[in-house]
Give the backbone structure.
Amino acid sequence: FRSSEEGNGQLLCLFNLSEQPLTVEDIQPGKSWTKVLDSSDAKYGGNGSTHAAHFRGDEKFTLQPLSAVV
């Protein structure tokens, strides 16, 4: 998780370096996030992203094996 010095911009990077899916919860409750990159997306050679373009921080979020989401 990274915030700008002004506090108006935030970047969340999630990584799963294991060979099993990983589910995370309560990433940042009350926050809304916009996905800008999902390495499991077919355009990056993955099997296809399972994540919506927008999600809330209090939703369960499953990272595919060996993937990153920004």
In short: The CA atoms of residues 15 and 68 lie 4 Å apart. The longest strand covers residues 14-16. The beta strands are 2-3, 10-11, 14-16, 22-24, 32-34, 54-56, 61-63, 67-69.
